[in-house]
Design brief:
Blueprint: H1 2-24, H2 30-41, H3 46-55, H4 61-78, H5 81-105, H6 126-145, H7 149-172, H8 178-199
Helix pairs in contact: 1-8, 4-5, 4-6, 5-6, 5-8, 6-7, 6-8, 7-8
Length: 205
């Protein structure tokens, strides 16, 4: 549980800092965002473009709803009801808060070197937040039902890498700035770990 607390504090602090910057003076981080985008764009190719444009869609709106439903159903089948409540609250509050923060910051999306056009505002990244929420809940589910630590760690690493890869894809296709992605991942992680700490007094087994 100590690791969960540390991850919660770190992700919350990073999101709070980014949110404050976006709300007060986003120009502070814009040069860094632009520089990273230039670096990523320099490595584009036809094959890579095709791959990332398809990959990034796994957390589009309809797909995200599907992953949320699947995650809740798996939790219902494999664990106790308190965990199902925890997962449901985590996922739904995350989607709501992401849209809420977008409406407050109202940061425009990148306007140059775009491979895929999306509507709406840029910070925080909805795809990245959804990936952190869903995959984070699946990590928790894994640790609740499996007694094999080596397998749990392996699945955890896989899901973490997958969430980060989703975030990278958002920058690659030009849908978001890097800070949007970091903000989305941190928001999702904060909620997953925060509700885990809140519900940790229940015995799920």
């Amino acid at each position: 549980m100590k690791k969960t607390k540390i991850l919660f504090v770190i992700s919350l602090l990073i999101f709070a800092v980014l949110f404050t910057i976006m709300a007060t003076n986003s120009a502070l981080i814009q040069p860094t965002d632009n520089a990273i985008r230039v670096l990523v764009n320099a490595h584009r190719s036809t094959v890579a473009n095709t791959f990332w444009m398809n990959f990034t869609q796994i957390f589009n709106s309809k797909e995200t709803i599907m992953w949320i439903v699947i995650t809740i159903i798996l939790s219902w089948i494999m664990t106790s009801r308190p965990f199902v409540v925890q997962v449901t609250i985590t996922l739904l509050s995350g989607i709501f808060l992401n849209h809420f923060f977008k409406s407050i910051i109202k940061r425009p999306r990148p306007s140059a070197n775009i491979l895929m056009h999306y509507s709406g505002y840029s910070f925080p990244s909805g795809h990245s937040c959804a990936a952190a929420l869903v995959l984070g809940c699946l990590v928790l589910l894994t640790w609740h039902v499996s007694q094999r630590k080596w397998l749990n760690y392996l699945i955890t690493v896989f899901f973490v890498c997958l969430a980060v890869t989703v975030g990278f894809s958002r920058v690659y296709v030009g849908a978001h700035y890097p800070s949007d992605v970091i903000g989305g991942l941190c928001l999702g992680t904060t909620l997953v770990t925060g509700f885990q700490l809140l519900f940790s007094k229940y015995n799920y087994h």
